[in-house]
Design a protein that fits this description.
It is a single chain. This protein is mainly α and 271 residues long. The protein has one domain: Rhopdopsin 7-helix transmembrane proteins. It is built from 9 helices and 4 strands; from the N terminus they run E-E-H-H-H-H-H-H-H-E-E-H-H. It has helices spanning 23-30, 38-68, 70-73, 76-94, 96-105, 111-145, 155-173, 201-241, 250-270; strands at 2-7, 13-18, 183-185, 192-194. A two-stranded antiparallel sheet has the order 1-2.
Length: 271
């Protein structure tokens, strides 16, 4: 409550109390939040509930399978898939529940501090996802297009790669915690992320660096690797179609087998 003093028409001073804004109301003003309709919030909440349950169950089953089967953890590609499942499960735990609860309530429930925590946590996990996908594409490129380098992709090397993936993520998601940009509510006020629209020099510079080093480089890497894989796959397919008159060599047979296995892994991961 705020107490104000005004002058009475006959010259006397009187006190009256102005109700203080709640934290949510103040956040709506400070961050220009545009609330959805009640039906919009409920629809979003139901959708996120279903998505969160499916994601949690699916990724939990994948992690359980990897933990149960030691042989699976001995393959470098599988370690990256396990890391992807861990980061996805993290989003299911630290992202969906916060946003879903806020959608049911029709407002952000966790205040400014909670907004910073959620923004940092989910952005770190999402960035880890992106880093892992880029590394997976590179591993598949080596496996299919440069098999003579396969010996370098050992489980120990992959564990170091996974450690670097998390370090790289935190390096790029931690600056807003120390004042370089910030984590703020998103337009509808039920989740939080980087302040993407801040036009001041420092935040804008941070945003552009994120776009370059946390998005464009990853997209270029993924597109390049899978394009090269597709080219190699077409070459092997062409050789296979001519195998009646010209039998496939050992390297081509192995490459065809690797491509078939990669397709299966990609299909499983898509679901």
């Amino acid at each position: 409550m705020v107490t104000a003093i005004t002058e009475h028409p006959i010259g006397l001073l009187t006190n009256f109390t102005i109700p203080a804004l709640s934290e949510w109301e103040q956040m709506k003003i400070d961050f220009n939040i545009k609330p959805l309709s009640d039906s919009g919030y409920i629809g979003s909440a139901i959708y996120l509930t279903c998505l969160g349950i499916i994601s949690t169950i699916g990724n939990s089953l994948i992690i359980a399978m990897f933990l149960k089967e030691k042989k699976l953890r001995m393959k470098p590609h599988n370690l990256l898939l396990l890391n992807l499942a861990v980061s996805d499960l993290g989003i299911s735990i630290f992202g969906y529940p916060w946003t879903t609860a806020s959608c049911y309530a029709g407002r952000y429930l966790f205040g400014r501090v909670g907004c910073t925590i959620q923004g940092f946590t989910t952005f770190t996990l999402a960035q880890t996802d992106m880093n892992t996908l880029a590394c997976l594409s590179f591993y598949r490129y080596i496996n299919i297009c440069k098999p003579h380098y396969n010996y370098k992709l050992t489980p120990l090397t992959t564990k170091w790669v996974i450690s670097l993936i998390w370090v790289y993520s935190i390096v790029w998601t931690a600056p807003p915690l120390f004042g370089w940009s910030s984590y703020i509510p998103e337009p509808f006020g039920t989740s939080c992320s980087i302040d993407w629209t801040n036009g001041e020099l420092a935040p804008a510079l941070y945003t552009w660096l994120l776009v370059i080093f946390c998005y464009l480089i990853h997209i270029i890497t993924i597109v390049f690797c899978y394009y090269q894989i597709s080219v190699r796959a077409r070459e092997v397919q062409k050789s296979l179609s001519n195998s009646v008159s010209h039998p496939l060599g050992t390297d081509e047979v192995r490459c065809f087998h690797r491509i078939a296995m990669e397709k299966k892994v990609t299909l499983v991961r898509s679901f």
